[in-house]
Design a protein that fits this description.
The complex is a heterodimer.
Chain A lengths: L1 H22 L3 H14 L1 H14 L4 E3 L2 E3 L2 H13 L5 H13 L3 E2 L2 H11 L5 H10 L2 H43 L1 H7 L2 H13 L1
Antiparallel strand pairs in A: 1-2, 2-3
Chain B lengths: L7 H13 L5 H12 L5 H13 L3 E9 L5 E8 L1 H16 L8
Antiparallel strand pairs in B: 1-2
Helix pairs in contact in B: 1-2
Classes of the chains: A mainly alpha, B alpha+beta.
Amino acid sequence: MAEHLEREREYSIALDELKKRTSRGERETAMPILAKLMAVDSEGEALLGTLREFSERLPESRFGQRLMDKEVQVEFDKRLLSMSKVTASRQEALAKIEISLNGYVEEPRLIVCSLVRAKRAPPTAAYFLLDLLLAEADRKAIPGDLVEEFATSILPKYGARGARLWFWTQTVRTIATRNPVCRWLLVGGLVRFGEWIFRAIG
Amino acid sequence: MGNDQLGRFEELVLLALVRLRENAYGVTIRREIAERTGRDVSFGAVYTTLERLQTKGYVSSRIGEPTPERGGRAKRYFRIEAPGIRALNETRETVVRMGGLVHVG
């Protein structure tokens, strides 16, 4: 578990550095960082392989940018979608990418970053549960508070997996406190079990 | 003195509202309590207490604008009202009368 957290931290630092360098236009010096980033995430590595294969078939337009024609774009999307571990959150990222693919595309490898980054969102199932089990008044504010705390405080501190676990723990605790039926069902074991796991990885 | 004695957590929540003034909503209230007391409190516990205080007329709330960084959800801002300040002062005065500001033992 500690090794995983170390990898997540490494990933987070590399991603920040990559963003800084690409925003300054230093694409060449960003590449070694990108390689490091991909080595941290095996799914990212697999996606990178697919993108490399496609980028070789694309006509060069100008330095650092390649033009994707519609046909290649469609095939590209199909390949990504057919990959075994394309989750719902990654599909969201694909939708965003589709917009950027309508014109000139930046380095294809940067697209991979947004795909990998997509898993750093709150768990959709937990979010759905909050919507389902909270009263109308709570639905307006509590899920938003959880998302804000997740993104601004917990994710940088514990990494993607730890933050998602935190989100689940908070979801269970919140529902157990705010929903009378769930409180009756869940008080005790489940909440304490979630807290114990969170402390164990913290 | 009236009967407006507050529970320990209610007192902490009201003190957080006093400190945060116009920026008191779920995230900042929870963070304020966690940072100053070292307690990890859940959003559910914070909202349950705030709801109870609102029923007593100690706090009021208003809904802000939804923002994209909160997944399109709005913030619910809370504000301490005059009865809340009175209850807070009474509780603290009781503690002082009992010698609660002196280290015991």
